[in-house]
Structures are given as structure tokens and as C-alpha cells.
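Me: I keep going back and forth on a fold encoding question. No explanation is needed for now; the record alone will do.

Assistant:
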Amino acid sequence: MKILHLLGQRPDSTGSGIYMQSVMREAEKCGHENYMIAGIQPDSDIDFHGIIPDQCRFIRFNGGDISFPIPGMTDIMPYPSVRFADLSMKDIEIYESAFSRVMTETVTCFRPDIIHSHHNWLVSSLARRLFPNIPVVTTCHGTDLRQFQNCPHLRKKVLCGCRHLDAAMVLSGDQKQFIEQNYELPQEKVIVTGAGYNDTVFTPDTKPAPKPVQLVYAGKLLNAKGLPWLLKALKTIEELNWQLHIVGGGKGIEKDECMHLAKNMGERVIVHGMIPQVRLADIFRQGHIFVLPSFFEGLPLVVLEALASGCRVVATDLAGVMEVLGDVKTEYISLIRTPRLRKMDQPYIEDLPTFVRNLAQAIEIQIARTIEYPQINLSHVMDKLSTFTWQGVFERVQNVYFGVMEEMRKKDLTE
């Protein structure tokens, strides 16, 4: 079949972009034809992973098709962006007009059998309204649910299309429940397909001697990911020999705070910035412990990538993390209690000292275990990891495609 993939932001740099490109690669292996529409800034290079540029069309922000920067699905993106909450209704009109034009032209030329849009947000709603005779399915990445809560003035625009989707694929059961309740979709149309990691890139290797123990954080440099409190926790672990690698980008005050905390810790912290996945895989292979102190995640692919690379894991017990690791019983995974949250990713200030102590304690335990056993036995988690390869994920996604196509065929026959 011919599949049109939609994303309102860059098709790299974030989990949703990696997800979309991975689905496109697996679809091509299965004989499907792909085309992508996504956002981009002028004069920026896209990190393609096996995707042919001829299969893409971009809406250019910040001076191209649209004058303002790309609206991010999180408030702080790893590239210049604006918040949906700060856009005027005129800005939203310009945004939708540009996507409408490009989508309409592309559908006329490409003639897709199905549209797969990422995020249950404005672009997905627009696609459903523009093309009532083409099946439209979405993948929820979690950040769309956060925008749904943070931008109540846009909910009507989102729901007028998204409540009529043919299917909404989600990463976890927690997301399924939220969408059923808030997007007014029937239970049978909300399907858990999960997310995956690239098992050809993230592979284990012999770990270096733990002198020092190598810790890795990979994610955006912002408060919602818990990075400032990871740095504060490590500040209390002075006697043990460790080094932290920070991978990721950000901007604004929150990034500045993270960089200030990191700089004050001297050579014990190395900041790599934004790097390709192959380079991240190298860092994971040389790392001993991956730490994800986040207050908000959909389904954290980076945990799977770190595990598959042979890293121990310290993470918060978020619903998405528990869905992946909650039933895994092994000494090299430590899940710590997430502090109470005022919103989806904003902890109560009074809970943070306890959170920092618990985080430091879990890291200390894994450092001690690393010194004794630098190499972990991945056989305990191989069954779990195999469930989350991109091949396995796409099998479930493809079943959704086939299901909605069959429903459309039956509908046509009865009309």
C-alpha cells in the first residue's frame, strides 16, 4: 500500500521523528511505498536513517512557508522552537493553512491508501478533516497528551478531527486510557502498539574497567527530564569514582541551569550535545549505568537502547517505564519512586529533597554492583527486548493498517 506519514516538527532530533523514520524503513521492507511530510527550519540538515530524500516534502518554518519557528510538542525542543501555548489564533490559522496546502498537493500527487500521522494534535485533526475518504491513523507519543492539557483553547480544534480517527495507536496502556477518556474514541479504536529500538545499532560489547564507573544520561536538557536533580544527586556522591556523560540538547533558562550545574562538577561531567544515534550507541556500549530521572515519558525508547547496549538502569517508576520494565526482576535495574506531580511533569517542590536522596542511593547501589560486575547478563531481558524491536512494532502497526483498510472496504460495499 501507499502510506503518507505526517509529522508537525523535524523528522529527527526527537523520539517521534526516530519512530516515524523507523516505521518507514520497516514498511519499505514489507513492500509498501512511503512518503513523508514534516517541518524543518531553513538551511538545516536532516539526519536521515535510510530514508530517501525524494520521499519527503518539508514545510519550512522561521522564514520559509511559515514565519515563526517550529512549534514544539514539548515546551523546550533541541532546536529553535516556539510553544503552542504562545501562538495566537492567527498563527494557528497560518500553521494550518500551510499544512493544508502541502498535504492537499501531496495527496493529489501521491494518492496514498492510508495516512499515518504522528501526535494526536493539530496536524492529525487537520488530515482527518481534509481527507474523509482516506483512512487516517495516528501514533500518540505522550507529548501530545501534555499539549492537550496545557492548551485547553486548542482542544476543540484537535477533537473535531481526532475524535473521528480510524485508529489511534498508543505506546502504553496508560496512554490508551487517557485517549479513550479525553478524545472520545471508542475502546476498539485505541490500540497499544508500543515503540521500538534499532537492534542493529544498539548492541552490547565488553565493558571497560569501571575506573571510573561511566554513567550516561540521554534526553533533553530540561527540568521535566529530571536532569538538574540527577546532577544534584551526583554532587552528594563524592567518594565514589564516577563520570557522567550527558547527551542531548535544549535551550533557555532550564538548559542554562543544567549546564551551570554540570560545569561546577568539572571533569566528572562530559556534555556531548546532540549526536547521531550511532554515536549514542557507542557511548552506551562504553557506559555502565544509564540514568533516566524523568517526570514524564510515553514509552522511553532510550531505556531499551541502553539496556540492549548492556547498561544497568536507574529510572523513575513512571507508567511508561513500568510498562517496559515493571515485570523484569533483576539486580541491574533500579526503579525509584517518582515524586508527586502537580501537572504531568511538574513535581511538588517539597518532594524533591527525598527524590534526590532516593536517586543518589539507587545510583550508589548500581555503582557498587558495577565495580564488582561491570558486565551484565542480558539473557534476563532478551525476551522483553525482542518485543520492542522495530520489526516487532511494525508488525503490530501493519495489522492496524490492514484492519482499518478492511473496515473502509466493508463501508464502501454497504454504501
Observations:
- The chain has a mean pLDDT of 92.
- Residues 390-414 form the longest helix (25 residues).
- The chain has two domains: 2-196+389-414, 213-387.
- Residues 221 and 256 are 9 Å apart (CA to CA).
